[in-house]
Every structure is written in C-alpha cells, then in structure tokens.
Inverse folding.
C-alpha cells in the first residue's frame, strides 16, 4: 500500500514473533475491577453509553457495530480521567499504606484525610485530555497540578485545564519533548509526582495503573455488550497515540476471551504511527517517529510508544493502521449524521478515526485486502470506542459544518 502518511492509509500486518505475555496480567478482570470500584465511588460516575448502530452495521454488511461513547465520562468529554485518577489513588495508597478499597472519593476529598496526607503536586504533559483529567482529579482531591502542553495545543483545551485550578501552559515543544521537560520539573520538586500516561524504561508503575484505570471503560463495555445479547466482540478497532489505551483495551479483552480472542486492530494517525512502524520493523523492538507529528488527531500525535502498551499489542494485535486526517474527519461526520434509527454521536478528531477507518475499509475497493485480512463480514461484531467528544469545539465545527478534511470522491472506487 502507498506510503504517504497523511494522504493514504498505510496498513501493517502483525508478523512479529510472539513473546511471553507477562504484561497481560496487568489488565486481568480482577485488576480492572479495582479501578471500576474506585471510579464508582465518584459522585460524577455513571456508565457511559454503548450505542448499537444497527442501521449502520446493516448498511455496511456487518453483524453489529457497537460504540462506547466516552464523551459522557465524568462531564469531561473524554475517557482520559479514568487513568490519571486511578494512578493517583494507587500512588496515595502506596504512600499511606491504606488499601485502595478504603480510599473512596469521599475519604480522599475529606478535610481530615487531606490534612493528614499533606500536599502533593501532580505533574503531567498532555495534548489536553489527559491533563484535564489529572487537573480535575487533583482539584477534587485538594491537591495541586502542573500541566504543560505541546505546541499547537488548542486554547479551549488549555482553558479547560486552567478551570480546574491547575498551573497550565503551552510550550514550543512537541509532545515527546514536552514529556521530558515536565519529568525534569517533577524531579526537581520534593513533593512532585509525575503522572504520565506513557511508560519508559524505569517509569512503569504509574503508567501501568493508568492503563488499569482505563480498564473501567472496557469492563463496562463488556458487560453492556453481554446485556445486549452479544457474547463478545469479534473485532476491536482501537486508536493509539502512545498505545496505553490500546494496550489496556486489547489486554482486557485478550485476557478475558482467551479462547476466542477478538481481532484487534490498532489505529494511529499516519504522521505519528510509531506502533505501526514498530510492527513494520518486525523484531518486536520499538521505533520512534520524530519531528512535528502534524495531524488533526491531537490525542494521537505521539512519536514514542508506551513500553507496557507495546508489550501487550505486539502479542495480541492483528494489524496496525496509520490513518490520514480525512478518515478522522469522515468518522466525525458519520457519527454526527447517522442513518435513520441510529443515535447521533458527538465525536472529536481522536475519537472518530476508528469509525472513518471502518467505513473506508468496508466501502473502498482499494482496501479490500485489509478488509479480508481482518475478516470483516456479516458475522462480525465490531467494537469501537469514541474516546472523546468535541474537546476542540472550533475544529469540530470546521469539520462538520465546513467539511474540513473532506474527501475527493472517486466514485468508481466505491464497493456499494
Ligand atoms: C481522545 C483520545 N483518544 C485516544 C488517545 C490515545 O491514547 P494513548 O496515548 O494511550 O494511545 C488519546 C490520548 O491522549 C486521546 O486524548
């Protein structure tokens, strides 16, 4: 397939040698349940919707298409808060010796607990969603947050973080440089704790807890599908920046459904496709993408894979897709203007790309080989996660109202 990162899909099959699945245990149902129990203690908690796009599935010739809609998460418009909040409670549990089960929202936010615990400052680098989650949780628990964002970050996202009383700024650095910068800041602060949503050598505890925290969305979706009469998904398309979320979702379902593991496809922005390139390299080692990492998918604009996520994905993912911006914009419009009978979904740039990818695979002749490789057909039960709502409302309107990143129709290529 052609290789022009931001114009065309680039797909890589997973042909890497399998290694010991030691990271999978992290995402076992038992570990994820601890996160779910903690999140349930928040007054803002409710199960986010799982939409069943019946008409859409029928239209594409698929069995079913389920969409977990994370725009409803804690009123924050994205799934990210699940990770940061759980990592914080795990950290506090470790420091205080009090088990997580005894550290509910009520306990953590009580004056008595705050006075006895003292003051931490939680540091993080973010494109927006993760930092907002960390700032929100720190604020609720009476702690401080310092957030730095890479160049090009949206003002609305910065302002939303500042509204949570965080010290937040946009720096003239790309995402990976920003992470290193903030890590140095945290190290210099005697009360500083780096809460980063990616792992590297020597930094694994917090990102591991963050992945377990994301597990709340998987366990909810799993239970919702079962309640809907769907035993388990046959396919999961999951977006990736550093791959913590993808590793979390893939890990949960691969561990739970060992006997009929779903076909898992990791979906990245073509200009920041570090996981796909790592798969292309083929020996299980990671590849970094450097430079500007330009894409409208701000949450996926990351060039360095999360090592824990990668350990899971290299073993359980079927394939890796580097997608162009127009696929994300297409996904946003499909969600926004559903077929009669299907629900309308508000999905931002990083949330919608798996939908644009699925639609393109089913509709374009030129992607037939990928569609066949993934085995998409009338029996497929596909799970997508819309990971964010309109977290950048200006960009969202440009995409939906003005047709930004539209596609040029080449009618002869449609299958249907
Ligand atoms: C909305 C959204 N979706 C997906 C992701 C990807 O998550 P990860 O970086 O863990 O791969 C992010 C990351 O910030 C995000 O904000």
């Amino acid at each position: 397939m052609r290789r022009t990162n931001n114009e065309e899909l680039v797909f890589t099959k997973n042909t890497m040698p399998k290694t010991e699945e030691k990271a999978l245990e992290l995402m076992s149902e038992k570990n994820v349940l601890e996160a779910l129990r903690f999140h349930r203690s928040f007054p803002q908690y409710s199960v986010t919707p799982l939409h069943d796009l019946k008409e859409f599935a029928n239209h594409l010739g698929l069995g079913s298409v389920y969409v977990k809609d994370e725009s409803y998460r804690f009123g924050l418009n994205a799934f990210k808060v699940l990770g940061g909040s759980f990592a914080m409670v795990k950290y506090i549990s470790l420091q205080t010796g009090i088990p997580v089960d005894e550290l509910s929202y009520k306990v953590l936010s009580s004056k008595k607990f705050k006075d006895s615990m003292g003051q931490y400052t939680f540091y993080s680098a973010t494109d927006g969603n993760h930092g907002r989650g960390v700032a929100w949780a720190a604020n609720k628990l009476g702690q401080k947050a310092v957030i730095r964002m890479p160049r090009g970050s949206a003002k609305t996202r910065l302002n939303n973080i500042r509204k949570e009383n965080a010290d937040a700024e946009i720096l003239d650095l790309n995402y990976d440089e920003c992470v290193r910068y903030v890590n140095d800041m945290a190290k210099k602060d005697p009360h500083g704790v780096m809460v980063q949503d990616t792992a590297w050598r020597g930094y694994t505890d917090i990102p591991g807890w963050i992945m377990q925290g994301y597990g709340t969305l998987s366990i909810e979706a799993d239970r919702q599908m079962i309640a809907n009469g769907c035993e388990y998904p046959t396919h999961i398309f999951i977006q990736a920046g550093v791959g913590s979320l993808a590793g979390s979702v893939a890990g949960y379902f691969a561990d739970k459904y060992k006997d009929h593991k779903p076909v898992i496809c990791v979906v990245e922005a073509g200009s920041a496709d570090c996981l796909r390139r790592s798969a292309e390299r083929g020996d299980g080692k990671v590849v970094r993408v450097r430079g500007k990492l330009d894409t409208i998918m701000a949450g996926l604009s990351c060039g360095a894979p999360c090592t824990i996520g990668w350990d899971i994905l290299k073993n359980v993912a079927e394939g890796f897709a580097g997608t162009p911006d127009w696929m994300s914009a297409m996904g946003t419009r499909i969600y926004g203007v559903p077929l009669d009978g299907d629900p309308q979904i508000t999905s931002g740039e990083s949330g919608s790309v798996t939908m644009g990818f699925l639609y393109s695979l089913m509709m374009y002749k030129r992607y037939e080989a990928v569609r066949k490789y993934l085995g998409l057909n009338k029996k497929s039960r596909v799970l997508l996660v819309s990971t964010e709502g309109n977290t950048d409302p200006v960009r969202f309107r440009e995409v939906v109202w003005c047709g930004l990143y539209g596609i040029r129709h080449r009618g002869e290529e449609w299958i249907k």
About this structure: The pocket of pyridoxal-5'-phosphate is lined by residues 78, 80, 127, 129-130, 197, 239-246, 299-300, 302, 350-351, 387-388 (CB under 6 Å).
